[in-house]
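Design review, sub-item: ligand-bound model
Attendees: FS, YL, KQ
YL presented the inputs for the adenosine-5'-diphosphate complex:
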Amino acid sequence: MAIKRFKALEKVLSRKAIKIKFPKGKISDYFGINVFDKKKMQKYLSKQAYKHIISAIESGKKIDRKMANQIAMGMKSWAMDKNATHYTHWFQPLNDATAEKHDAFFNINKEREVFESFDGELLVQQESDASSLPSGGIRNTFEARGYTAWDPSSPAFIVDKTLCIPTIFVSYTGEALDYKTPLLKANQILDEAAVKVCQFFDKNVKKVTSMLGCEQEYFLIDKALYLSRPDLILTERTLVGHSSAKDQQLNDHYFSSIPERVSSYMKELEIEAYKLGIPLKTRHNEVAPNQFECAPIFEETNLANDHNQLLMDTMKKLAHRHNFVVLFHEKPYKEINGSGKHCNWSLKTNTGINLLSPSKNTKLNLQFIVFLVNTIKAVYENADLLRASIVSHGNEHRLGGNEAPPSIISIFLGKQLTKILDNIENQIGGTDLNSKEDKIKKLNIEKIPEILLDNTDRNRTSPFAFTGNRFEFRAVGSSANCAAPMIVLNAAVANQLNKFAEKVEFLISKNRKKNDAIFEVLKEYISVSKKIRFEGDGYSEDWVSEAKKRGLNNIKNVPEALKYYINEKTINLFENQNILSKRELQARYEIRLEKFIKNIQIESRILGDLSVNHIIPIAIKYQNFLIKNLKGLKDLFGDEISEEIKNNSLKTIKQISVHILEINKKVDKMIKFRKEANSLKNIEEKAKKYSKNVKVFLNKIRYHADKLEMIIEDEMWTLPKYRELLFTR
Ligand code: ADP
Ligand code: MG
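KQ shared the predicted structure:
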């Protein structure tokens, strides 16, 4: 049974901040103590094994069996020294959670002697009967085996006495069933393509790494309040609830002082994160009441994403200790800002250059423009796929809601860069291309750093914004696995860079000077991809019509957006680069459709339950109270009672009846549509039906429930109200 509202509120008011124990010393003294990082490897591995693993991490090459055994021994000794008892392969299946199955280190031999063991075999690969994890039809239950295989580029770590080894997860037939496998492939392909392009500028560049920093937004809610809202428990969002008289309109939460209980939670979270090697750097209150954000220092994309997944897991677990529940849902509350996860993305060379950072050096600035323009072109070419990569039942409520990036993918560059790209587009070309004058000088490219330093203009309404030395993909949802958008982005940019290199090389082979060739291709790309650039207010209605004129898509619902996962262009992009096959894409498509359907189904069921079993009975109770009151008045005053007073009471009594009737009718209809949808075999059809016919009832029913909330006596209302959910802690 759910906790009753006033009981819950009393509980919240009696809470105090949990006292936390700070580890001794500075953060750098305990940072990574639970990680088998380079320092520990050096200590626990032979010189040879250490060299081997480091070179495998750097080159992405396989580790041979003999070495794997040695590494496993070292890892085990370290884990034992840390009192670990179990180990697990830790992976990211397509259900958007992390998965782990723990096995104890201990073993028993024939003589029934007990000992601890762990070898290279167990480290490198494991077979798992993970038949309940989503596979999109890739695995049938009769061949349910899947394999997890070690990813040495993400270090093992210990959580709660269990050694966790980051792994990929593939089917018996070798298809990827997780996020990590295609991400690692996309990173590798991007590395090769970017190196090729860097070679035009600097022969010393041998490796380019994609970097990611995820800003994680989240809501906190007291556990007692959470437990008194069945909708939150089952769906992580409130399906009913009238908006609070005050919510975020005063903007008094953003960056304000952090409440004590929250601050204590954040501090303990940081301690736990540091021990796990997650470099959390920033914490603050976000725009909505009870909404917060934390952000780490950016890292290599695969590692950053593992860290984000591990962080989310840690956040959930730790919240309980502080009597909170953390909500990662993109839109827990109606009419209040939702939560996103801005993915800050850049490219770094082995020579220490950020390819998306303007530089003081003219040659590097041209290189910067090349990577900037290629990224713009890649986003332009794959905007719909990028949109598909971030869509979900939760994010659907957020995008286009005038508080988050719109559903239309566009890029913001800022005035100065826009001008530079416009100059390249307009000035160079035709005969101009052969002029003697130095193009770089003429276009003021050498002056970029100075200009950009002067101008840190930001556009918070853009889904994909350039922010000085990186792009910030702001449309990603707070609950997302960032690998989904990063796989698409990196695959798209890799493909684009390869085309660019090919074209430039072709022109050079036709005796064009290198810089002239580069400019010519840039000019073409800038012109072709111009449509995706937008500097104005992304929340405005004007942009919606302007985007339409430009031919940019404004895809608002999940099934429609997901279709771009399986169109020919996407299949070519991924198959040609060996990142995902058609079958794997189809599987991903189906898994995400299925997830969408199930989530709407759950929301619809719980709203039906809330309506019929909570809200309507309360409404009837209050209505009876009013009827009794009116009858009493009549008894007391007889005909003396004025028509106005009588009608006023009758009006409210009638209003309640109308809302009850409407809720009942709509719940019935919703159930009918749900049944119809459920009978459909084709998953696409089913998803469409859920989107079109079932989902719409959620708001329709809510409308009446929220009206009732405003009519009915406060004492009778059992579900905590918005003002309580948002302002009590
Ligand atoms: P803001 O809210 O102003 O965008 P934050 O400090 O909240 O800034 O978050 C910025 C995020 O971007 C951090 O995770 C940071 O490490 C990351 N970041 C900074 N520079 C880069 C870069 N070159 N590449 C990728 N991520 C970066
Ligand atoms: Mg940001």
